[in-house]
Prior knowledge:
This protein is mainly α. The protein has eight helices and two strands. It has two domains: 8-80, no CATH class; 87-164, no CATH class.
Amino acid sequence: MNDTTIPCYFLKENNIVLSAHEVNYSIQHKLIYLKDLGEIVDMSLNKYPNDERLLELALNLLSDSFYVDTDIGLLSSTLCETTCEPKSVRNKWRYIILSWLYENRTDSSADYDSINKIYADFDYPEDMESFISYMPAHYDTEKLGYDNILHNWKEYLDTHRHLIE
């Protein structure tokens, strides 16, 4: 997918809690550092204390009795049975990545490249078109170029914040 890895501190600072599906998705797509997995699961269990998949993962982490193959995700009977990627999981991770990139932008053409890559990796979602560098503007605007993209990117993040709440 992409080459952006989200550190645990960013999830904490933004109060982002992941479900078992979202944890599995992040492992499959190498979106988190595996060294942060225990802390991420701990945060998730605070919100989802009765989630059997998270409890199983926590127990496996504590006993060092599991193996993570990032090509297929967690090798666990309960987590591997969910091979589908619900749209809500993909949308939440897309939002998290775009938020991370926005907060860590370089105000250069590298930002265009990062956004364009996310756009492609997530199958060209329509709600991102307004801040894709090679897409035509959807409406008249006083802002041009990078300022317009930055404005529309921020607007997307503000509008879609509910995805992480």
